[in-house]
Structure formats: C-alpha cells, structure tokens
Amino acid sequence: MLTEQKVVVIGGSSGMGLATARRLARAGAHVVIASRSEDKLNAALAVIEGKADAKALDFTDEEAVRRFFEAVGPFDHLVLMGAGLPAWGKFREIQTSALESAFKNKFWGCFFCAKYAAPYLRKNGSILFTIGGAARSAIPGTAGLAAVNGAIMCMAFTLAKELAPIRVNILSPGLVDTPAYDWMSAEEKQGFYQQMGGNLPVGRVGKPDEIAEAALYLVTNGYTTGAVLDVDGGGRLH
Ligand SMILES: NC(=O)c1ccc[n+]([C@@H]2O[C@H](COP(=O)([O-])OP(=O)(O)OC[C@H]3O[C@@H](n4cnc5c(N)ncnc54)[C@H](OP(=O)(O)O)[C@@H]3O)[C@@H](O)[C@H]2O)c1
C-alpha cells in the first residue's frame, strides 16, 4: 500500500508514534523516525519490521528542523506525533510558564515541522497532525491542552487548502495507554486508566495500535483532507 513511499514520523520512538511507524512500515513504507533521544530511537528501530531509519531531532529548535528536512529531501507523508509535557490543571491555576512550555513542546514543534517539510512533500503526499480529545470537547481542567491542540487543529484546516493538493488531516486520540503516563507509579497508572476508561462508552482507555490503524487510514486515503478523526472511545460525547 505504501511501497516506494517515504514517511517521516516525528515522535516515532514512543507510544502512538512508534505504533504508527511500525504499522506504516508493515504497509510497505520506508519510515524515518525522529525524536530527541538516541537511546529511544535505537530501541524503536529494533522493533520496527521493514525499512526504517532514525534521526535525532528536537523539534522545538527551528534551525535544526530546517536542516532535518533538508537532509531528508523529497518524501511522501509527514506524521506528527511528538509532544512534551502538557499543561494540565484548572484554568485559574495554570502557570503561564507551563502553558508556554506546552506550546513550545507541541504547537511550535508541529509548526516548524510542517513549515520546513512542506517544500519537500510530494504533491500526492500528506501531513497528519495529532491533537487530543481536550480540543474536541469542554472538559474542566484541560483548557491548557485544548488551547495547544485547538491551535494546531485550526492551523491544519487552513493548511488543507493552502498546501493543496498535499492533504492535511487531524487525528484526535482520547486517553491512550502510552509511556506519556510513565511518571505515575504502575499502581497509580492502573487506577487512573480504570477510572478514566470506565467513564467512556467503550469502558476502557485506548491502545497505541488502535491509533496507528487510524493514522494509516488518514495517510493513505487520497480523498480525505481537512478531516478530524476522533479515536477516543466516545470521550467527546460526555
Ligand atoms: N497518550 C494520550 O493519552 C494522548 C491523548 C491525546 C493526545 N495525545 C497526543 O498524542 C501524541 C503522541 O502521544 P504519546 O502518548 O504517544 O506520547 P509519548 O509516548 O510520550 O511519545 C512522545 C514522543 O514525542 C517525542 N518528543 C517529545 N518532545 C520532543 C521534541 N522536543 N522533539 C522531538 N520529539 C519529541 C518523544 O521522544 P523523545 O523523548 O526522544 O524526544 C516521543 O517519541 C502527542 O502529540 C500527544 O500530545 C496523547
């Protein structure tokens, strides 16, 4: 399906990005995964079956992003799944510095990557942004997440027209079991997943492979652009 196509997966060393890189490689793509940690990238390469390369990149560094895409050269699809710590918390308690850091470590990284990748993307290619359920529903305590992810989503709608015929889509995961929650103890994490997942129509949190299947669809479906795909266990219905 993706034979002879090159896909860059930013954040491809962990969680949903790694699951997506694995899925795309299984579909025949040559994947290039990028993130900051060489150790994580090497561990990820070891579990990707298919053609894969890795390159260290901090996507908050504009000049490094420019050089990264210059080195990659022409390619087909850009998948953006990288993010640093989000700014959780009630609106009146959010620290400005935490929200600034969240914008830096997600919005600005996505902005730099899309901007410097665009000249190298083939005309039948695509960009896939990953946002998050907070931007798709009004959940108290997630205004900071909604702001960062909503900014990405609105930018992406415009890009779907401005960069056409390159397709631009948005994947919106709900709560998914990934290393993003490894700052909790195993016990805390289990309780958190049970509580949050139990409130969802599907009764559980998501798995990275379920997001990877959705990403494969958005990357490969030539008639889909400017779309938001919610893969959130029905979370936006609350
Ligand atoms: N997990 C969830 O419940 C959830 C829900 C909704 C939305 N999301 C979104 O889904 C996406 C994937 O999340 P995940 O849970 O799979 O996260 P994850 O497992 O923590 O992986 C994050 C990835 O981003 C990379 N990264 C972080 N900062 C970076 C930087 N400055 N430059 C380049 N790469 C960077 C990390 O690698 P390095 O550390 O090596 O840089 C890692 O590969 C994110 O955009 C996240 O906001 C997650």
Describe the structure.
α3 packs parallel to α4 and α4 packs parallel to α5. This protein has a single domain, classed as NAD(P)-binding Rossmann-like Domain (Rossmann fold). The longest helix has 22 residues. It is of the alpha/beta class. Strands 3-2-1-4-5-6-7 form a seven-stranded parallel β-sheet, sandwiched between helices. It is 42% helix and 18% strand. α2 links the parallel β2 and β3. It starts with 5 loop residues before the first strand and ends in a 7-residue tail after the last strand. Bound molecules: NADP nicotinamide-adenine-dinucleotide phosphate. The site of NADP nicotinamide-adenine-dinucleotide phosphate has 31 residues, from α1 and α4.
Please outline the helices and strands.
Layout lengths: L5 E5 L4 H12 L3 E6 L2 H8 L6 E5 L5 H11 L2 E6 L15 H22 L3 E10 L12 H20 L4 E7 L12 H13 L9 H13 L7 E4 L7
Parallel strand pairs: 1-2, 1-4, 2-3, 4-5, 5-6, 6-7
Distance between the termini: 36 Å
CATH architecture: 3-Layer(aba) Sandwich
Q: What order do the helices and strands follow?
A: EHEHEHEHEHEHHE
Radius of gyration: 17 Å
CATH class wording: Alpha Beta
Name every ligand kind in the structure. Answer: NADP nicotinamide-adenine-dinucleotide phosphate
Class derived from helix and strand content: alpha/beta
Proportion of residues in β-strands: 15-25%
Helix content: 40-55%
Number of domains: 1
Task: List unreliable stretches of 5+ residues.
Answer: none
The spatial strand order of the largest sheet comes to 3-2-1-4-5-6-7
Shape: globular
Main beta-sheet annotation: 7 strands, parallel
CATH superfamily: NAD(P)-binding Rossmann-like Domain
- Total count of helical runs of at least 4 residues: 7
CATH fold annotation: Rossmann fold
Q: Mean pLDDT, nearest integer? A: 97
DSSP, total strands: 7
